[in-house]
Amino acid sequence: MTEIELFRNSAPIDPQLHVWGWEIPVYLFLGGLTAGLMILTALAGRGLPRESQSRAMRLLPFAAPILLSLGMGALFLDLEYKLHVFRFYTAMRPTSPMSWGSWILLLIYPATILLGLARLSDGEMAALPRTGRFRGRLAAIVSRLRDIATSRAPQLERANVILGIALGGYTGILLGTLGARALWSTVILGPLFLVSGVSTGAAFMMLFRLGHEEHAMLRRWDTGAIGLEIVLLAMFFVELAANGGQKGQAAVDLFFGGSYTGPFWVLVVISGLIVPLAIELAETQKGWRPAIVAPVLLLVGGLALRWILVLAGQASI
Amino acid sequence: MLFKNYRTRYAMVMDTRRCVGCQTCVLACKAENGVPVNGYRDWIVTETKGEFPHLSMEIRSERCMHCTNAPCVTNCPTGASHFAKGGTVQIDRALCTGCKACVAACPYGARYVHPDGYVDKCSFCMHRVTKGASTACVEGCPTKALAFGDLNDPSSDVARLLHSRTSKLLSPEEGTEPNLYFLV
User: Which chain B residues contact residue A247 at CB under 8 A?
Assistant: First the structure.
């Protein structure tokens, strides 16, 4: 028997680490969602003329910076020294994924906004308010940027895919480098969060009124992403149990009989992956009318995945 | 890692056979460094092993290990946590955003969030050491269970103690190469 008594009482550390609350999972979810949205909007509209795309599909790139800003807002709320937020941009630390991430976040704004501008129709451009000096000047700038973006559409699409992969992967690697926590110390979190981000990105897009073909294409991609996510989740646990030693086994036990078993299997695996996968397969193969159920379940599952992994990771030693 | 070659290598040696867990090191540190309520820079751990009546107890005075491969430094996004004089790990408050990546990265729970928003921890009392004094905890310890000095100086207390006694590190499997040694 070994009994350890610790004469230390610090709220965020003892008896177990809980430095990160709701803000971090919400950011990781919205970051992943943005990553998926960037990759999918770039690929779905690749090389297609504006007229052949639905209005929703053309405008969806603009959702990326909005969702990302909401996520960064949550991240900002988590900072203990909010006035020092600018310090992320006075340094570039190659060993810190958080540092990489903060610079990637900055690049995402121009990439997504320009992609959105490139896909604005002539009608939408004509509808821009131009009355008054300020609005007129703004409209002129938008119009000029749209011209630049249109002429560089292939490069923009590539940039969105690359930055999307970087953003989605980094949200997982961020936790993965915090090796002191057994649950997080695996490289699989990077691809897992990326694939989950693609899936939630597809789900988010399917909430909008897309064309029949567009919806079917996204559904097809999403089915693949969900399948891959299930494989990665299995690999995540196998890797932890096989290579994580005693601590890794204890971390795995949190999900197999431990305190996170119920929420994880119900919210993430069953209602967040298997049920929407079955619904999407039925929609594709049996011709079910696409409903809002599968996307909503996927979004809730994606948020639950991150929430549970952030909490359980802090509970693991 | 990046900053391994220091001419001076500050380390602390803690004798678990001398320590009685009186917490004087904790109080000395709090007084010296103005550690706030609910904050800490060092703390006492007692580890009891065996089955009654065959029990053994080890008492340790723990603090930041000033690791040579410090995960807090590699994970800090702003450079606030950095290697400084003598290979010690220090925090630049002006750079700290309070993102807590270092708190999550530290396997020893050595860091806490100061009420003013920055992350704080043991500094090996560098403000004293640079003036030729030892750390507050070492000077306060009534049983002489703590020693501080330069590992690269063979005549220092820490080098001599490590040379003559059996020592151990905490969680060596983390690969952090701590600079706080425990004599057993």
Answer: none
